[in-house]
Fold this protein.
Amino acid sequence: MSDLEIDRLSKRYGKLQVLTDCNLMAEGGSVVTLLGPSGCGKTTLLRSIAGFVEPDAGRVMVGGRDISMLPPNRRDVAYVFQNYALFPHLTVAQNVAYGLTVRRRPRAEIARRVDEALGLVALSDFGGRYPKQMSGGQQQRVAIARALVLEPQVLLLDEPFNALDAQLRLTMQVELRKLIDRIGITSIFVTHDQAEAMILSDKVAVMHGGRIEQLAPPLAIYDQPSTPFVADFIGRANIMPVQVRAGHTQTPQPVPTPRPDGPAVMIVRPENFEVVPGTATGWPGRIGFATALGATIEYEVDCGMPDALRVSMARAPGAGPLAQGTDVTLRLRSTDGAIVLAGGAAHV
């Protein structure tokens, strides 16, 4: 189990700065997910690790060894492509064996390692089939087996579940995480799906504009986002401009904060608001929209701000949502759950 370290990696295409001073550490055997919107640089960073892209500055190190100048075939990393990239004219076993065959490993070793790799992904009985005879989920497992058969130090996966339907995608996410835990391989996973990142990751690197804005465990990212962009991208968030004076926000419910006096941004997750009918101490407003989602009810409440505040509450058995137009007050369930960040802009 080898550590992977990215040190100040940067890449520019003409006038477009794609990566800027990216730093990342993945401990041996862990899964780090690169998460962000399209065009944020996550695939370029992944391809830089693989050696498919040559960065302008920075280093890539595996197990303490600088591999930045090595060609892809000497980096001891394996890449699982978004479209699987299986050879249609080769059987499953031949596809999995391809990398070992190119490296001219002995036939007996190839057969043994292919059997082991197919066993890891629960496809031991499928070696004689062709890709067109396999489902999307099975083809994805073949692609993973083809990567694992090389016994790499680092496994790289570029949005491998995009082509799968929602139910199969969830199943494959869980199965991949179990597989990685079982074999203990350091893995870097690229996705734009925050739920996928939460399921798979030991750490999440949230990327924006070619930079890593925050690197932390998934729940730490959710509970303590370091920027408004991270708060808005991971889960849902109410992002409000506030003023800080004497260690508290100047809001209907003051929130203690170490921020200096002046403008700031307060972030409140929808589940940290509760709706109180009528007048009380809090944010007065009016129900603009309500959605019953089985166990929860979600509200959009007009409190006289540019954007409605969003609230998510548990639904009492047999109860329905409050009617549109109902006057209510929003209160914080816990001031500890409100995050106050520096700066005066509420929008990201």
